[in-house]
Amino acid sequence: MINDLTKGAPLKLMLLFSIPLLIGNIFQQFYNIADIIIVGRTLGMNALAAVGAVSPLFFLIVFMVVGLTSGFAVITGQKFGAKDYPGVRRSVAMSAILTIFFTLFFTVSSVLLMHKLLGIMNVPQEIYKDAYYYIQIIVIFLMVSSFYNLLASIIRALGDSLTPLYCLIVASVLNVFLALIFILKFHLGVPGSAFALVVSQAISVVLCLWYVKKKFPILHLTKKDWIFNWKKDYTFAWLHLKVGFPMAIQFAILGLSILIIQSVCNSFGADVIAAFTAALRIEQLATLPMISFGVALASFVAQNFGARKYGRIRDGVRRISLLNVVLSIIMAFIMHFWGGELVSLFVGRENVNVVKIAHEYLFISSIFYFFLAQIFVYRNALQGLGRAIIPLFASVGELLMRAFAAIYLAVRISYFGVFYAGPIAWTTAALVLAIGYYSTFKGFIMKTRNKLRNQKS
Known about the structure:
- The chain has one domain.
- The chain is mostly helical and about 450 residues long.
- The mean pLDDT is about 80.
- The chain contains 17 helices and no strands.
- About 85% of the residues lie in helices and about 0% in strands.
- It is globular and about 70 Å long.
């Protein structure tokens, strides 16, 4: 259901909006958790290490597409907030055209360079074959993931966070079912897990399209919406790319930084790879509430920016920031005392060394969840404002700090250096984003005041 976020109590609106997002994110992680548990428990630690070894590469490729589609949806949300409904439809059509073009480029480039990329990542020879087939299957069908993310981003931009949730619930359950069939019945091994992920995401796309056709008249595009005149629509295309492209680079830099860490981590053997993979999945679950509030904030800010309600934006950002601080403290407490128990659910208690290494990572990283929580607030607020350059600079800072920790500290203190990479990067990025947000918002206030003075005079 379409929801106008420019009216009503900001915190209440965002909480109601974020609850389906949180549940949806949990089911999204259910994809990854199902892979870890099914692969780890049925195929062994080497198979788990194969999936974990190429996960950063998967994130790098998919993140670029997610960044693009999320950026495009910011323009859609701003048009909706301004009550420009023909502009909403044109934005959706333009977003689809641009998504197809860039996804094809990412797919072809990744397929051709895959062996070279895995070589750079130091993927161990004993897990290379499984890792290669897993990532190639996902990359070949990247268009499926791209269109799900585009549809979900557009629907959320209109204030509806429930529809993507319904699609994800069905797809997540199907993913587990298919993974078990492909691995246990058809004996497809690690590639079977990739096929299950692709098919389940395809179901998400079909469900989103069906629901849009039935329930969203505002998104029923006509032939006119699809006509692209280069001279006339160049500016409109650039408006989308001006937000989407920096966000794609930002996400790519984030994925690249994780890839660097994983490359260094791969040099420490299968136990460290498996531990790092399991710990990251748990950390992703622990931070889901903070991520969900951040995504809700982006839609809230985009709509209110389109409606020029800057006071509501400031109030919403302040409230979500405080809420994320509380959540970061709670999650850090849980990771400190029960992190090892959570890891054992993924890999089994018998893998004592893997559990020990993973818990060490969670113990270190959770101390810095405060900074990670603020990243989700200020990054999404800036993106909702259409200011993607500052988050891009913050991502560059993250990349540099992660590379320093992963390469320099790993030499000094072994794999513990890899564990400090995230916290150092989070601290740097949070400071850049906070300064960027407050300076940007101050500029908006000054511009508004000057405009009012000029009108009075």
